């Protein structure tokens, strides 16, 4: 063991090899505190060459590697097991912005760069990197790619898969895939970078990426609208698309229980409470006042429970903060069984009705919190109080999940829309995913990681 630590220190420097319990502890528990592990060490390389050297060393010694970015996974995707034999490889030192090509609207960054730092670098170049998440101050680009993160603006800009032009990846044998292309059009064979987006570090370690940038919008219009039903909410989505096209950047929904929870813990900040609240944002070049006037005129012709339009950037940020605070506010009420599901937007209302009825029949009085990115069909669907209190909540988890995921499957959806699968959902993925797709995934794992050393114990090991 001492020899291994010595070899690790030779590669990254002794100060970047952590072995003491107090030093490694922050890397061994997932963001939700659900998974806890142990490790032989935590190493923090500073370059792709150092990552490759570490991987070659581990391959020679049959030591498993758990890549870790900002450790914001909600599914235990970046947590080692309890054996104490796995190596945690932190990308936190690899934060460089390698290149910004404004003419090509692209940026090349290292995997350890935080999402917020990439947004800032783009903004300083008068460009927009549109991925936006509540954890953007701590989540890292490598992790965003590894889970195919989505966030608040998928409706207009797409997920990380759509935002990624090229990747640099260290493979399980230490070879480096050099594919940091800024091309938007390339028909020269298979697009191999796609294998690593959404793979959660199980096929290789992403060390850098070339990402799309966009013109920086200088006009926005933001409204918080109350409507009477989920059906009406989805009708509004279609109507807004028809009226404003790709100026519609975000379309978020919050159920009445979500609003009441926000009102309880954030008294005075909620404009009103309605059966469903919509957070709508338009963005474009030009003048915000003009765009706001167009939205105001359109809203005047619609049926709604209530509504407010932000009149300043400060008011806009207050409305968005309500949405961003939803997850943390719910945590104040205790644990919940969380689902990061997706269904076609057209099926959202039917799914909500059917799944709610099924859960209430099985667990009368349970509390269901529904909020999320309705514009792309991604809902955060959280269930608590399946009994009189939450003391035995997770005893009911399998039964709750079966109800929710059965309904998701019925409506042609997915059980993992943007947070990944990790160790939490592997068995469920095996139950619902197309068998041929599962077979292809297993073949890719065997081909690229025959020793099974890349982030073992996660979903590719469970399907």
Q: What is the percentage of strand-forming residues? A: 15-25%
Q: Span between N and C termini? A: 32 Å
Q: Treating each run of at least 4 consecutive H or I residues as one helix, how many helices?
A: 16
* Largest sheet geometry: 7 strands, antiparallel
SS-based class:
alpha+beta
Strand order of the largest sheet: 15-12-14-13-17-18-16
Q: How many structurally independent domains?
A: 4
Shape: globular
Low-confidence region ranges: none
What's the CATH topology name of the largest domain?
Answer: Uridine Diphospho-n-acetylenolpyruvylglucosamine Reductase, domain 3
Number of strands: 18
Question: From the coordinates shown, what is the CATH architecture of the largest domain?
Answer: 2-Layer Sandwich
The value of Rg in angstroms is 23 Å
- The CATH class label of the largest domain is Alpha Beta
What average pLDDT do the residues reach? 95
- Helical content stands at 25-40%
Task: Explain what you see.
By secondary structure, the chain is of the alpha+beta class. It has four domains: 2-92, Uridine Diphospho-n-acetylenolpyruvylglucosamine Reductase, domain 2 (2-Layer Sandwich); 97-215, 2-Layer Sandwich (Uridine Diphospho-n-acetylenolpyruvylglucosamine Reductase, domain 3), CATH 3.30.465; 219-328, Alpha-Beta Plaits (2-Layer Sandwich), CATH 3.30.70; 334-419, Alpha-Beta Plaits (2-Layer Sandwich), CATH 3.30.70. Helices cover 34% and strands 21% of the residues. It has helices at residues 2-12, 21-24, 48-61, 115-124, 141-146, 154-157, 160-163, 230-244, 256-265, 288-299, 313-324, 326-331, 348-362, 397-410, 426-432, 435-448; strands at residues 17-18, 41-43, 65-68, 87-90, 97-101, 106-110, 127-128, 164-171, 176-179, 204-212, 214-215, 219-227, 248-255, 276-284, 306-309, 340-342, 367-373, 378-384. The strands form four sheets. The protein has a seven-stranded antiparallel β-sheet with strand order 15-12-14-13-17-18-16, with helices on both faces. A five-stranded antiparallel β-sheet has the order 5-6-10-8-9. Helix 1 (2-12) runs antiparallel to helix 3 (48-61), helix 8 (230-244) packs antiparallel against helix 13 and helix 13 runs antiparallel to helix 14 (397-410). It is globular. The chain starts with a helix and ends in a 15-residue tail after the last helix. Pfam families: FAD-oxidase_C (PF02913), FAD_binding_4 (PF01565). This is FAD-binding protein. Keywords: FAD, Flavoprotein. One of its GO terms (molecular function) is catalytic activity. Belongs to the FAD-binding oxidoreductase/transferase type 4 family.
């Amino acid at each position: 063991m001492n020899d291994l630590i010595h070899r690790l220190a030779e590669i990254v420097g002794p100060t970047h090899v952590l072995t003491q319990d107090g030093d490694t502890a922050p890397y061994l528990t997932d963001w939700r505190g659900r998974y806890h592990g142990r490790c032989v060490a935590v190493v923090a390389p500073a370059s792709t060459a150092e990552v490759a050297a570490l991987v070659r060393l581990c391959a020679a010694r049959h030591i498993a590697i758990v890549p870790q970015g900002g450790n914001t996974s909600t599914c235990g995707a970046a947590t080692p097991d309890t054996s104490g034999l796995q190596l945690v490889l932190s990308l936190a030192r690899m934060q460089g912005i390698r290149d910004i090509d404004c003419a090509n609207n692209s940026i090349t960054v290292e995997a350890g760069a935080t999402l917020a730092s990439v947004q800032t670098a783009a903004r300083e170049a008068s460009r927009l990197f549109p991925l936006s998440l509540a954890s953007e101050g701590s989540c890292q680009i490598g992790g965003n790619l590894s889970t195919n993160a989505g966030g608040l603006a998928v409706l207009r800009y797409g997920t990380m898969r759509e935002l990624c032009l090229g990747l640099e990846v260290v493979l399980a044998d230490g070879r480096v895939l050099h594919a940091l292309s800024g091309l938007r059009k390339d028909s020269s064979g298979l697009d191999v970078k796609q294998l690593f987006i959404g793979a959660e570090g199980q096929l290789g370690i992403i060390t850098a990426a070339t990402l799309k940038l966009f013109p920086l919008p200088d006009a926005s219009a933001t409204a918080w609208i109350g409507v009477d039903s989920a059906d009406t909410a989805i009708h509004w989505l279609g109507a807004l698309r028809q009226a404003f096209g790709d100026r519609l950047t975000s379309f978020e929904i919050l159920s009445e229980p979500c609003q009441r929870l926000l009102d309880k813990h954030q008294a005075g900040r909620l404009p009103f409470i309605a059966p469903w609240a919509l957070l709508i944002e338009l963005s474009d070049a030009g003048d915000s006042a003009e765009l706001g006037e167009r939205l105001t005129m359109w809203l005047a012709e619609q049926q709604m429970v209530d509504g407010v339009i932000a009149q300043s950037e400060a008011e806009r940020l207050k409305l968005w903060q309500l949405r961003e605070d939803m997850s943390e506010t719910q945590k104040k009420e205790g644990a919940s069984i969380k689902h990061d599901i997706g269904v076609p937007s057209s099926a959202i209302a039917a799914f909500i009705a059917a799944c709610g009825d099924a859960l209430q029949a099985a667990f009368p009085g349970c509390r269901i919190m529904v909020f999320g990115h309705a514009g792309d069909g991604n809902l955060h669907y959280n269930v608590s109080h399946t009994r009189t209190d939450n003391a035995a909540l997770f005893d009911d988890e399998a039964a709750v999940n079966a109800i929710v995921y059965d309904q998701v499957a019925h409506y042609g959806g997915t059980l993992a829309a943007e947070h990944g699968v990790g160790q939490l959902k592997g068995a469920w993925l095996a139950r619902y995913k197309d068998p041929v797709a599962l077979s292809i995934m297993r073949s890719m794992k065997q081909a690229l990681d025959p020793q099974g050393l890349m982030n073992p114990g996660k979903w590719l090991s469970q399907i």
